[in-house]
């Protein structure tokens, strides 16, 4: 990885990869192969990065502790992607076939369940005191996913509805990763709150940018086709903002409310969204959110790990994948 925030934890992130490979082994060769297929597709590894950086920024010194926790969080995150792709009938993830397309839906469901179990086992063995964090975050992810389903293809969805969904779906797991790293480092309360507040906002901003890339992104960089969220009727901020446009908003709403839009519909909607200020508003929202959370880290002592957390915040809003 070329991002500056990666350079001070490269060894720990390699340990995360090694731990995931070790802990996702099964007596069944095909199940092990499916798990390797998921985690081997790569990814940004933001959750383990946040965990490790928070650990060191709060005074931790043992590289193995945060790496184990980070690996557990990444396994659980990967399991949610497996199930999300089945739920959304996704075809491509990170530039390759989704797990259920490469194998079968029934086996992919089981593999996702297995990954959840292995992730929880790794977290519990590494630091039993942080289990409550991941339990709460997992429950929030499920609740957020459920609410999102309720709002699919509903043009009445509001920005507040959307923010509630992404805080639960994405922000809470980022927060749990940071708090877990800080807790294992023995952080004082003020430092724990600092990284928790930072990570919750970071995860929320990350999801806003992610949803914006579904409209503007390069498939060769994002690893998936643009317009996927529109096809699925997912309520995302660029769509919500675009539906407010007095000129093209009604046409976008009409397409968004279709249970089964055609590809022509989707391409038309993307073209119309680009005519509005929706993308600029989304990126401004994410940037403002990141600006507001940077000060949350003020209580932390100066260190290269605190600097890396600040660099990571900048990456989230400028990324292209």
Furnish the topology, listing elements before pairings:
Layout: H1 4-7, H2 10-23, H3 29-39, H4 46-57, H5 64-88, E1 92-93, E2 96-97, H6 99-102, H7 105-126, H8 131-151, H9 159-184, H10 189-216, H11 219-222, H12 228-232, H13 237-243, H14 249-256, H15 263-275, H16 278-294, H17 304-318
Antiparallel strand pairs: 1-2
Helix pairs in contact: 2-5, 4-5, 4-9, 4-17, 5-7, 5-9, 8-9, 9-10, 10-16, 13-16, 14-15, 16-17
Based on the model shown, name its key terms.
mainly alpha; two-stranded antiparallel sheet
Query: Count of DSSP helices?
Result: 17
Strand order of the largest sheet: 1-2
Fill in the CATH topology.
Answer: Farnesyl Diphosphate Synthase
Q: Could you tell me how far the N terminus lies from the C terminus, measured between alpha carbons in angstroms?
A: 13 Å
Identify the overall geometry.
Answer: globular
For CATH, the homologous superfamily is named as Farnesyl Diphosphate Synthase
- The portion of residues assigned to helices is over 70%
**Stretches with pLDDT under 50, minimum 5 residues:** none
Helix/strand class = mainly alpha
Strand content: under 5%
Please tell me how large the radius of gyration is: 19 Å
Secondary-structure element series: HHHHHEEHHHHHHHHHHHH
| CATH architectural arrangement | Orthogonal Bundle
Describe the structure.
With 321 residues, the chain is mainly alpha-helical. The chain has a single domain, classed as Farnesyl Diphosphate Synthase, CATH 1.10.600.10. Helix content is 74%, strand content 1%. The chain has a two-stranded antiparallel sheet. A hairpin with a 2-residue loop joins strand 1 and strand 2. Helix 4 runs antiparallel to helix 17, helix 8 packs antiparallel against helix 9 and helix 14 packs antiparallel against helix 15. It is globular and about 55 Å long. The two termini are 13 Å apart.
